[in-house]
Amino acid sequence: MLLAGPEAYWLLVSVAMYFLASGNTPPTEAGNQAVEKWWFILPLALVPATFFILLLHRNGSAAGLLVRINLTCIAGLIVSVHLITGAIDYGDSRNSGVGMGYVMSIIFGMFSLFASNVFAAGGLWIARRKRKRPDGGSTVRPSE
Questions:
Q1: Which of 24, 81, 93, 116 fits as disulfide partner to 31, beta carbons 3.0 to 4.6 Å?
Q2: Is residue 111 part of a domain?
Q3: CB–CB of 121/104 below 8 Å?
Q4: Taking the C-alpha atoms of 25, 27, 30 and 36 in order, what is their torsion angle to the nearest 10 degrees?
Q5: Is 45 within a domain?
Q6: Residues of the chain with pLDDT under 70
């Protein structure tokens, strides 16, 4: 299947952000504030949630899936943040800070992505160490 996994997840997130952003047309004060909340939700909740796809992983390389997760998180985060940032317009001097919200969200997303990778790599390493060899032995070497 072409879009199974992190690609489908971020496509759905991006479509949801499109509809969320289009709901703030014309931009209102309350709508702008509601959309701004997603500057935090996207990087701090939805980026780490992508890594739960590793738990469903059954076929192929886990490392390959981790690369796909990273690439789609970066692309999906940029697209989603761009969509919601484009929907914010205060019509006054507060618009000067809107661009910083975009930058802040991307930076938080990169830190969140890094932390999620550390946990995922540790989990994959532990799972690999616990996996049994075909001859019945463990891949863990006994201490000498």
A1: 24
A2: yes
A3: no
A4: 100
A5: yes
A6: 1-3, 132-144
